[in-house]
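Format notes (please read before filing issues)

Several people have asked whether sequences and structure tokens are stored in separate files. They are not. Every record keeps both together, in the order shown below: the sequence lines, then the token lines. Line labels are part of the format and must not be stripped during preprocessing.
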Amino acid sequence: AGILPEGMSAYISYAPRVGNPKNSNKAGSGDKGGNDTGDGWDLAVKHTGIMDGLAIYAGVSNIEQKNIGATTVAGDKNEWMAGATYAIGSVTLGYQHSVSKLNTNAAGGVSMYENDAYAVSFNVNDDLSLSYGMHRSEQIQNGGTNTEMEVKSLQMSYTAGGATITIAESEVDNALYSSATTN
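Then the structure lines:
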């Protein structure tokens, strides 16, 4: 308290040994034995004191990759993101940009992802809300073909007493970063 300006918060985390990031649903990740990854850290900040209804946030993350080789890993995994939301009356707008660098050198392997997302929501009244969102993510490959996945979603939520009914219509182009017609 009193360290940061009013309306600002910061979150810092550190892990001396990052666990296996490829865990499956309902399974523990376990430790990779320290061969592939080392330590990891995250830093996130949020500021809500600039103007009423506006929240600005940003974050950065880094995971040490130990097995650096000419054909596999070029450096640490790192990510950053920045975004904002603005609420005025019953409307809320949001936008976020993020980059995730895997730093792999493997030919045809995924080097990084670049993402943009935006959304708008409208509270018609205390019981009914409507929202629309779009997310674009470009998968960038080493010497391969970059593919952009796009997701659009329109949603409606209605609450009556203790029950909520939610309807969503979503569309995905190039699912799993595949540009095949069926995706």
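For reference, the curators noted about this record: The mean pLDDT is 86. The chain has no helices and nine strands.
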